[in-house]
Amino acid sequence: MNAYCKFNAPDCYGAKELEVLLEISHLLSNREINLDEVIRILAIHLGANRIIVTVLNRETSTIVIEGSFGISVQERKNVVYQFGKGIIGKVINSGETVLIKKIADSDEFLNLTKAPTQIGGSDVSFICTPIRYKNEIIGTLSFHKVYKGVYSFDYDTRLLKIVGSMIGRTMRRRQEYAEEMEQLRAENQSLRGELHNRILPEKIKGNSGKMNEVFSLIESVAPTDATVLIRGESGVGKELVADAIHFNSHRKTKPFIKVNCAALPESLIESELFGHEKGSFTGASNTRIGRFEAANGGTIFLDEFGDIPASTQVKLLRVLQEREIERIGSTKPIKVDVRIICATNRNLEELINSDKFREDLYYRINVFPVYIPSLRERINDIPILTDFFIEKFNKRHGKNIKRITSSAIDTLMVYHWPGNIRELENCIERACILSTDNVLRTNNLPASLQTAKGTKTMMSGTLDIILGKMEKQIIIDALTATHGNSAKAAEQLGITERMMGIRTKKYDIEAKRFKV
């Protein structure tokens, strides 16, 4: 006797399947598609233990997981399938759906996601079907499910193919995005490798190893038109680095426009950057050119770049890609020839993870990153910076400061400098003003610098750790004083050259970094 499924009955498979397809169709029609939610709905309907959607990168022939159910985001990050290898790789290669009733018995099932081969004593089956877009295979849709012996997978396979065809367009967009990101990374590396010219910056002071690395980067990138991203804490001198790059470039006689993005209200930042047409908004009584137009032929420096609102990030991406802007209220594109230098003290990677900064914009601006170390990372530069600031404030305030005492220098060297070079500059200016005998002394410095306990700069850790830190600093000081001559530094410290070599190796100190 034949059994019929009465439509709309509680156990009607066709009605339930139609509801699932309608819900998935609704989710796919939204602008922001949540692929994991689509997969979750499918998994519940199929009773699947896990579902995987993969996408093929045509540039690298690698296959990565783009969405999943039953696998954490962290677990799927490091899973990469190869074209033609394993079940997923072979499905993309052949375009044929594959059913494995017992994955435990299959030699072709690679199980890179560490899926269980049995659940509750029952074997697990695996079905994988290709995802197509306009007759091109762009990925796969697969699921794991407990095998019940007499159970037929025909209905499940049919539904899998239907959903695969529905998400094809979405997967194509994700495929193109992944390939574009890969291309941007490749361009990023290529552009870094092409920058070789050397021009020494003039206004940045320091002779520590880390600052010499910064000088080398500036010398390399200055003659080019590459986009530069300057990173570092507030007060480390990011604007000075931007100055050095521009004024040592072939654009040095052209405009150099500086914009503090954090200081501009969100409602005005687009008008400031791109300009506006007369009558484009309330108060726009005249046509005004933006900062990009003003910088045409030269350089624009976007400080506090990490604070730019999301709506403006989209337009900046177009500037970087097309080298053209549109004023507010106009549809006419304006070509601009501008070199872009950005600076930020924000953690852009964290902003990307929290969806506050566009990943594609990040790769566009991160062509040539330059990290400026904090002052506590370059303590040995404090004496040369101090001399520079003394000379500067002698001219500004009509003073005649001749020197700074060793005890005052020691006080400066043990402070942790949360405000970096800007804070050091303010301290030296105050000391110059207070000095009455043309000498900077400890009592001329701010009280907050004079006690380690009061400023929370006491060394922490065991006695061995504290002594190690002090020994390392003493060795660095000796090498600095002897310009990297290990023999002279050892003699100055009263130890043998062999002992000096052992200690520099222990603390990973390169003597050549201190040579002048």
Tell me the layout of helices and strands.
Layout: H1 13-28, H2 35-46, E1 50-57, E2 62-69, H3 73-77, E3 80-82, H4 86-94, E4 98-100, E5 118-119, E6 122-133, E7 136-146, H5 154-166, H6 168-193, H7 209-221, E8 228-231, H8 238-247, E9 256-260, H9 266-274, E10 275-276, E11 288-289, H10 291-294, E12 299-303, H11 310-322, E13 324-325, E14 334-335, E15 339-344, H12 348-353, H13 359-365, E16 368-371, H14 382-397, E17 403-404, H15 406-414, H16 420-434, E18 439-440, H17 463-481, H18 486-493, H19 497-506
Parallel strand pairs: 8-15, 8-16, 9-12, 12-15, 17-18
Antiparallel strand pairs: 1-2, 1-7, 2-3, 4-6, 5-6, 6-7, 10-11, 13-14
Helix pairs in contact: 1-2, 11-13, 14-16, 17-18, 18-19
Your description of this structure?
- The chain has helices spanning 13-28, 35-46, 73-77, 86-94, 154-166, 168-193, 209-221, 238-247, 266-274, 291-294, 310-322, 348-353, 359-365, 382-397, 406-414, 420-434, 463-481, 486-493, 497-506, and strands at residues 50-57, 62-69, 80-82, 98-100, 118-119, 122-133, 136-146, 228-231, 256-260, 275-276, 288-289, 299-303, 324-325, 334-335, 339-344, 368-371, 403-404, 439-440.
- The chain has 516 residues and is of the alpha/beta class.
- It folds into 4 domains: 13-179, Beta-Lactamase (2-Layer Sandwich), CATH 3.30.450.40; 194-373, P-loop containing nucleotide triphosphate hydrolases (Rossmann fold, 3-Layer(aba) Sandwich), CATH 3.40.50.300; 376-449, Helicase, Ruva Protein, domain 3, CATH 1.10.8; 463-514, Arc Repressor Mutant, subunit A (Orthogonal Bundle), CATH 1.10.10.
- Helix 14 (382-397) packs across helix 16 (420-434).
